[in-house]
Amino acid sequence: MEDKEKKNAVSAGDNLTDYMETVIADLEKEGKFPAAHVYRSVLRSFTRFWNASAPMRDDPTSMSNVLAPIRDVFTPERLKEYETWLTECECSPNTISTYMRTLQAVYNRWMPPGMVNHNPILFKELYTKVESRTKRALTAGQMRQLETTEFCALSLPQQRVLACFMLMFMLRGMPFIDLAHLRKQNLQGRRIVYRRHKTGKLMVVDVPPDAFRLLQKYRNRAESEYLFPILNEASPGKERYHLYQDTLRRFNRELARLMKKLLPGVSVSSYTARHTWATLAYHSGTPLGLISQSLGHSSIRVTMGYLKPFDAEVIDKVNRQVIALVKGSKKKKVDSINMLYGTLLR
């Protein structure tokens, strides 16, 4: 760890581009291609900001297409300017948060906590929250409608898409990337034992009877290591990551077309299954910690980001109940609120 910190604690003359390219190369060597993709996006974005703001900097020698000295990047003023620029470019709050958290990770590599010049509050005034601002879940009724769909009325490709979506839901909101990368050896009897692609966390998931029937019908019958016919055998490394990205885009296109037929007017993506599982568990009164553990989240904070948009529903319900009490409306059965978890008790 000490050697790594010395390696990353570079001299004042280094520029952001060269340093981040080194970090990106390290991430790719470790097989962390999604993270490397985000880092590269942040670097491109900051480079555009740096070039666009060159005429406004105090340094008279500042010009566009000049590499940003890393010490000039990690100052409260410069980072705030970048955040403002992202806002003016109409980036979403979650995009801004992702970019700022990525720069924070780069800063901590370059100037590790504990070093004399490390500033622990450098990002305090910047937007680094992780939250979901829109609903991305289906209702129980909509899931029931999908569950009762006549598969025989669909084409085989449509059947596979719907089967994958339902399996992601029934396997505790399994992400598409984990479903796609499941190996046949991960299926151990009626359980799936695997490590989350994103965090490496060990997951042991019981396969319910309905899910097992879908699994058996649509599993990969070819001579392949993969449990489902989603990914083809591919070269390891970056090529496999790019192939997965292409597969994900294709799956979401096919899923969107299918949902136009099954749930007209409802926006659905591969991640909807995961959000739906979390949301329905939340509204059934399941403890937040148990939901977090079931999803394989690194912390309850991540789970809360999933569910925050639905707090408003509970608050609105409480508001109507309070108004009804004040108005002295006639007695009727009123939904009660689980005060510990803030969910509706039906």
From TrEMBL:
Ranges for the Tyr recombinase domain?
133-320
Keywords in alphabetical order = DNA recombination, DNA-binding
Q: SUPFAM superfamilies given for it? A: DNA breaking-rejoining enzymes
The record's section on CDD domains has:
INTN1_C_like (cd01185)
Q: Gene3D superfamilies under this entry? A: 1.10.150.130, Intergrase catalytic core
Q: Which residues form a coiled coil?
A: none
What biological-process GO terms show up in the record?
A: DNA integration; DNA recombination
Q: Which GO terms describe its molecular function?
A: DNA binding
Could you say which protein family the record assigns here? Belongs to the 'phage' integrase family.
Q: What is this protein called?
A: Recombinase
Origin species, per record, is Bacteroides intestinalis
